[in-house]
Design brief:
Keywords: Transferase. GO terms for molecular function: thiosulfate-cyanide sulfurtransferase activity. The chain is α/β, with parallel strands linked by helices. It has one domain: Oxidized Rhodanese, domain 1 (3-Layer(aba) Sandwich), CATH 3.40.250. The chain has five helices and five strands, in the order βαβαβαβαβα. The longest helix is centred in the last third of the chain and has 12 residues.
Length: about 110
């Protein structure tokens, strides 16, 4: 049995959660084109496929809300982060598909 290493935050409650956790880092693990199409303001993009090689860019002392399209890649990212010593992890359950608050679109 695998132990859960993160806490799920339902997307419908995500905006309120962000207001409560002011120092939370938003980590978006989608692909750049998905991020450009719409992301939560302030989110840092590190695609899941690059996360392991870029993990040194992240601070283990901070709390992270990990985001993807549906919640699947963010769960995988949470497990990878936990294996590397991160323990303050939250998963945006339902991902951007269920996010109802503000999004920012990138200009190309």
């Amino acid at each position: 049995m695998q132990v859960r290493v993160y806490t799920n935050v339902p997307a419908a409650l995500g905006a309120d959660f962000l207001k409560e956790k002011k120092d939370l880092v938003l980590l978006d693990v989608r692909q750049p084109e998905e991020y450009e199409a719409g992301h939560i303001p302030g989110a840092v993009l590190i695609p899941l496929g690059e996360l392991e090689s870029r993990i040194d860019e992240l601070d283990k002392e901070k709390e992270y809300l990990v985001i993807c399209r549906s919640g699947r890649r963010s769960v995988m990212a949470c497990h990878l982060l936990n294996e590397r010593g991160f323990d303050k992890l939250f998963n945006l359950q339902g991902g951007m598909l269920e996010w109802t608050a503000e999004v920012t679109r990138s200009q190309r």
